[in-house]
Write a structure and sequence with these properties.
It contains one helix and nine strands; from the N terminus they run αβββββββββ. Strands 1, 2, 3, 4, 5, 6, 7, 8 and 9 form a nine-stranded mixed sheet that branches. Strand 2 and strand 3 form a beta hairpin. The N and C termini lie far apart (about 65 Å). About 20% of the residues are buried.
């Protein structure tokens, strides 16, 4: 009888812990909405969303082919880490039917493609997604802001760095110049 009571009690305790763990991961809270023009602390990046527009060319002057159009989002980015990084390619994702690949990113100061941003340097960038000409673009574009956390020491190598616990921090609602009803 003692074995049975102990066994049932152990299973109940394990079930309770499992239930509480699963419940702690539930988020019934809606994601926060970030304002255009306001700085967002996005993990390793500080991003200030500036404008969004529809265009027929990329910021370096290349015309889009096959009747495509570009959704161009201009941002101001500051690398908050100690190393040069290009993880800004994964920072924002639009609610548009874009390819799963990375967007094109251009430095606005010289209209060249951005390779990496250096620590503690603020740059203005244009992030470009291409769409078919007939794809609907809403008047207000929703952009998810993806962030990762910093760890002083990771579990595998005992090193510090960014890139842990990727998640969406919130949504930016950006009015689109030249956008139409979706």
């Amino acid at each position: 009888m003692v074995w049975l009571t102990t066994g049932i009690g152990g299973f109940l305790a394990a079930g309770l812990v499992l239930g509480m763990t699963i419940a702690s991961y539930r988020t019934d809270q809606p994601l926060p909405t970030f304002a255009v023009g306001a700085p967002i602390e996005a993990g390793e990046w500080r991003v200030v969303p500036l404008t969004a527009r529809i265009d027929t060319a990329t910021p370096d002057g290349r015309k889009l082919r096959d009747g495509q159009k570009a959704v161009v989002v201009e941002v101001e980015l500051t690398n908050r880490t100690a190393d040069s990084s290009n993880s800004f390619y994964r920072l924002l994702t639009p609610d548009l039917p874009v390819d799963k690949g990375q967007p094109d990113v251009f430095l606005l100061r010289d209209r060249e493609r951005a390779a990496e941003l250096h620590p503690d340097m603020t740059e203005r960038l244009a992030i470009v997604w291409t769409l078919p000409q007939d794809a609907a673009v809403p008047q207000v574009l929703k952009l998810a802001v993806h962030v990762t956390d910093y760890r002083r020491r990771d579990n595998l190598r005992g090193q510090n760095g960014w890139g842990y616990n990727p998640h969406v921090a919130g949504i930016i609602d950006m009015p689109v110049q030249g956008g139409g009803p979706a």
